[in-house]
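name: query_chain
kind: protein
chains: 1
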Amino acid sequence: MKSVLAFGDSLTWGYDPVNLGRHAYEDRWTSVLQKSLGHGVRVIAEGLNGRTTAYDDHLADCERNGAKLLPSLLETHKPVDLVVIMLGTNDMKRGIAGSANLAASGMKRLVDLVRYHVWGFDYDAPDILLVSPPKTCETANAHFAAMFRGSLDESAMLATLYRDLADETGCGFFDAGSVAVTTPLDGIHLDAENTRAIGRGIEPVVRVMLGL
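structure:
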């Protein structure tokens, strides 16, 4: 049995911008991936609304800093064959980091946490797949537009920066923006079809990295 840890934010949790809740289980990209890969692979969905790569956000009653949470999740779910990391959108918030370069630095921190985690029991460190989230888009939603002001140009840079980081660190890379687009309902989230599209699009990359 192969294990895949999907570490992400609301796009992995499955935030539904249409109904303002959570997408049905079968519509989440992690569920689509699980169904496609079959029973020989376990996809562990670890999505959290508002999660950042490595930056503090004190506006919620939970820990959103990915760098603080990831080591405990690695320890909880070990052994893991592949860690898929799709983060960076929340780093675009003006009060968090506000730039694609800082998001890429946060992703590098997460890569290091996986690589240098003390796995024990003779377990090997897993492979890592970096996923750049779809870029943000214009929205008439005043709340989200204010929260993510300036993110349009910055989020468009994530794919290039993450691809370069993947090359530098020996990770896999997938651009979720190549198969999915954000909705203008809020500018950052995905409707059900675009959420499913990520699961379908990422499957071939995951298969290769797992040696299936």
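note: The chain has a mean pLDDT of 97.
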